[in-house]
Amino acid sequence: MCGRYTLTDPEAIRLRFTLTPMTETRIVPRFNIAPSQMIPMVVEKPVGRALVEARWGFQPAWMRETATRPPPINARAEGIAKSKLFRRALERGRCLIPADGFYEWAVVPGAKRKQPYFIRLKSGGLFGFAGLATGPSDDHPATCAIITTAPNAVTGAIHDRMPVILHRDDEDCWLDPDWHDVTEIERLLQPYQAEAMEAFPVSSAVSSHVNDGPDLVAPVEMPGRLAL
């Protein structure tokens, strides 16, 4: 799953995702974004790409009154086109969720606690998670989920899932509101190439959602540091 991520350079969002000039990007750097929080997402509007806010936890209107558990923060790529919960959003509610890294927790033999790792592109900078969104209503904000897939070699050494990071060349297709062929859309939901990514252990302070700040993404020393 993908349950925590970072967005540490919000000022770069406008250029990276080619947002319309009218789009405001009043976002503070965040080093420990957690489920149920309000997060920015990129959507395609008639006037161009825009940045809007959504609550992280996918909750369409029809499930709000009957929900007995927290809304899902992730959507599995496998079988997503047949999912009652996600199919409509896959057809008509696709979004990009800007990020510059994410965390996963690895089991450490002989230890009681899992070790958090920070995972990012070797080149640094922003990328877009493949996301699905519901629209807002009068009394509820928009909501969203991050799609996950099988891990590549870097993430697979830590966890059995990873978020779908879209290639920049595929982002236009993903956001295209006129593209509804779910079979073709599913083809974009692949693991990002391992040779372009790196992972390293970080402080266990990231395990608490109340902690934030650049210290959370600083490498810590421990045996078996992962890097490609």
Q: How do the strands and helices of this protein lay out in sequence?
A:
Elements: E1 5-7, H1 13-16, E2 30-33, E3 38-45, E4 48-56, H2 61-64, E5 74-76, H3 87-92, E6 94-99, E7 101-106, E8 115-121, E9 127-134, E10 143-149, H4 153-156, E11 162-163, E12 165-166, H5 171-175, H6 182-186, E13 197-201
Parallel strand pairs: 4-10, 5-10
Antiparallel strand pairs: 1-2, 1-7, 3-4, 6-9, 7-8, 8-13, 9-10, 9-12, 10-11
Gist?
This protein is mainly beta and 228 residues long. 12% of the residues lie in helices and 31% in strands.
Give an overview in words.
The protein is mainly β and 228 residues long. It has one domain (5-217): hypothetical protein yedk fold (Alpha-Beta Complex), CATH 3.90.1680.10. It has six helices and 13 strands. Strands 3, 4, 5, 6, 9, 10, 11 and 12 form an eight-stranded mixed beta sheet that branches. A five-stranded antiparallel beta sheet has the order 2-1-7-8-13, with no helix packed on it. The longest helix has 6 residues, at 87-92. The model is unreliable at 224-228 (pLDDT under 50).
